[in-house]
Specification:
mainly alpha; 3-stranded mixed beta sheet
Length: about 325
């Protein structure tokens, strides 16, 4: 009640607490996250460049992978630069408008990634369960439509939520117990009526995260059933190898995302919740290029050829 009475004292800056409870590790955390950011950006940009440059990777699966890599570079750049600046300078303040903008891009990219992962699982479903019709069903036009739909859905869906958040009044306290502007920690600081915002946010999260998750889960259930029906062990291994990398990424992403948002929001689980948030915002984008480059023969071959061309070009320049 006191907070609502102070509605005319609206604050314009918030404080991201981040890892302030580890003051002696700030420099180490900065170096660790800086290395992760550099490797994440370099790895995902490399994957996207290989998909564009190598004709052997001009297939639906790698088209989706290239988009996922582009998304991961944006995803990391939404959270990590501010985190790194805070760790280096000690300045944890962020304006309300900047916080809402960060939330918009972060949540829009989360929604887009959920849809992209479901499109990739659908692609693997068609390749394994309907191999004779795969080329006809998953054509270039459909790939482009699914990809554009994924990006547009994520960014358009969060506009309504973001507009409602921009209308909130923040009267204090101003401390966000997170290292980025996530939905729950931010709205907890508002002294405005949150009923409409919570309903709209629930609908959007259900449509743009739960539905893609169900589609992904359904695709993999069908894939597993089909693989188990293959009589030969070699056939099973070959079929599973075509989707194993994507399955690992889906498991890590949804696993950490679900745990982070399902954990009770109490002090006992506060640090654990922050740890899982680090996993799905920082570590998962790092895993994407590592998993696909280490487990995928086509990507490794494309990388080997690209390196050979670079070495040959360097030798020509030296002559």
């Amino acid at each position: 009640m006191e907070n609502r009475d102070r509605g005319n004292q609206s604050v314009t800056e918030l404080i991201l607490l981040g890892f302030e409870n580890l003051p002696e590790l700030q420099t180490l955390l900065f170096l660790v996250f800086l290395v992760i950011y550099i490797v994440t950006m370099a790895g995902n940009i490399l994957i996207a460049a290989l998909v564009v440059a190598d004709q052997h990777l001009h297939t639906p699966m790698y088209f989706f992978l290239g988009n996922l890599s582009c998304l991961e570079t944006c995803y990391s750049s939404t959270v990590l630069p501010k985190m790194l600046a805070s760790l280096l300078s000690g300045d944890r303040t962020i304006s309300v408008s900047s916080c809402i903008i960060q939330f918009y891009f972060f949540s829009a990219l989360v929604g887009t990634e959920c849809f992209l992962l479901s499109m990739m699982s659908y692609d693997r479903y068609l390749a394994i369960c309907k191999p004779l019709h795969y080329a006809a069903l998953m054509n270039d036009r459909l790939c482009l439509q699914l990809t554009i739909g994924s990006w547009m859905s994520g960014f358009l869906a969060m506009i309504i939520v973001t507009i409602l958040m921009a209308r909130l009044t923040f009267c204090g306290p101003t401390e966000i117990n997170s290292f980025f502007c996530d939905f729950i920690p931010v709205i907890k600081l508002s002294c405005s009526d949150l009923h409409v915002l919570k309903v709209v946010a629930f609908i959007c999260s259900s449509v743009f995260s739960v539905i893609p998750f169900i589609l992904t889960l359904t695709s993999y259930i069908c894939i597993i059933i089909t693989i188990l029906r293959i009589p030969s062990t070699t056939g099973k291994q070959k079929a599973f190898s075509t989707c194993s990398s994507h399955l690992i990424i889906v498991t890590i992403y949804y696993g950490t995302l679900i745990v982070a948002y399902m954990l009770p929001k109490i002090d006992t689980f506060r640090n654990l919740n922050k740890l899982f948030s680090v996993f799905y915002t920082v570590i998962t984008p790092l895993f994407n290029p590592l998993i696909y480059s280490l487990r995928n023969k086509e990507v490794k071959e494309a990388l080997r050829q690209a390196l050979s061309k670079c070495v040959a070009f360097a030798r020509i320049m030296e002559m």
